[in-house]
Amino acid sequence: MLLHGDQACHPNRGVMMAERKFYRKMKLNISLESLLFDKKVSDAILAISIILPIAIILIMVFDTLLGLRIGDFNDYVILCMLSGTSIYGFYQYARSRYIWKIEDAFPEFVRDLASSRRVGLTLPKAIQIASKGNYGILTKEIKKMSKRISWGSSVVDTFSDFAKRLDAPLINKIVSLIIEANKGGGSVADVLDSAYGYAREIQLMKRERKSSMMSYVAIIYVSSLVFLVIILILAKQFLPMLCGEGVSELAGTISGTSMVSLHDITLVYFYAAIVQSMGSGFVAGVFEEGSLSAGVKHAFILTLITWLSFKFLIF
């Protein structure tokens, strides 16, 4: 085949053009998975989670200054907390859930690569064959790798991009082993077998830990809801009865200031329940996945339940 013009000076120009066409096509085919691992999307969600509470605070200030009375001060406070935790919390939940499914299927993919290498196939060919298999949600990622290889990308670059995009601890370790084995020129099949055994053991340990920790998460939810029910009973039944018997006057006398109203005492109970809900949510995240960021969604759920309970039953 004869090369003409610039192609004669740049023999890799055809491969480069093909890669550019591939990337343009991939950019047009934006999916939920690509958004989950886009750094710009992650930064945008974090920024929105910060901007929304600030915007609500500004609305509260204008509401107070202009006397519009759009909402109650306590509602604004809770809306700030919910808006700051909802978007980021459920984004992290969707991302961690996707990574969990990928890591769960990854050992089988590594095992099949090892089997293909043992029968004499190259690693690029093994990836292309694996892309025709069924690895659940990982299949999409393998197809992306296969397309990159078919357009001329090296195995090292393909695996590096795969690991960088997902940024999952287990995948980073296994990919590093595969890349080093491929560069070293040793028995890649043996390395892949070892990587498969390691990945499988890690996933089994994670699965056992998650199943055992879910009982603790359930206990946290139950204890939080029990605490909320007790607070609601006190605020709905016990406090009005005490105030009717003159306990509020007694409280005011002891404090040496003006009388403490029923509303003020109820607010103390309300914020105590909110703080308890937020704290329990973060603790649940630590038990579930070992990180505070995993607890943002739990904090949102428990805080929302507490706020709505007081909103409709007490205030």
Could you explain how this protein is built, in words?
The chain has 13 helices and no strands. The protein has a domain at 209-313. The chain has 315 residues and is mostly helical. It is elongated and about 85 Å long. The chain has helices at residues 6-9, 13-28, 32-36, 39-66, 73-118, 123-130, 138-150, 155-166, 169-184, 188-244, 247-255, 262-289, 296-313. Helix 4 (39-66) packs antiparallel against helix 5 and helix 5 packs antiparallel against helix 10.
Oligomer: single chain
In terms of per-residue confidence, which ranges show pLDDT below 50 for 5 or more consecutive residues?
1-11, 25-30
> N- to C-terminal separation?
82 Å
H/E series: HHHHHHHHHHHHH
Percent helix range: over 70%
User: Largest sheet, described in full?
Assistant: none
Number of helices: 13
**Approximately what portion of the residues adopt beta-strand conformation?**
under 5%
Number of E strands:
0
Gyration radius, rounded: 28 Å
Give the integer mean of the pLDDT values: 81
What is the topology?
Blueprint: H1 6-9, H2 13-28, H3 32-36, H4 39-66, H5 73-118, H6 123-130, H7 138-150, H8 155-166, H9 169-184, H10 188-244, H11 247-255, H12 262-289, H13 296-313
Keywords:
315 residues, mainly alpha, 13 helices, disordered N terminus
Q: What's this, in brief?
A:
The protein is mostly helical and 315 residues long. It has helices at 6-9, 13-28, 32-36, 39-66, 73-118, 123-130, 138-150, 155-166, 169-184, 188-244, 247-255, 262-289, 296-313.
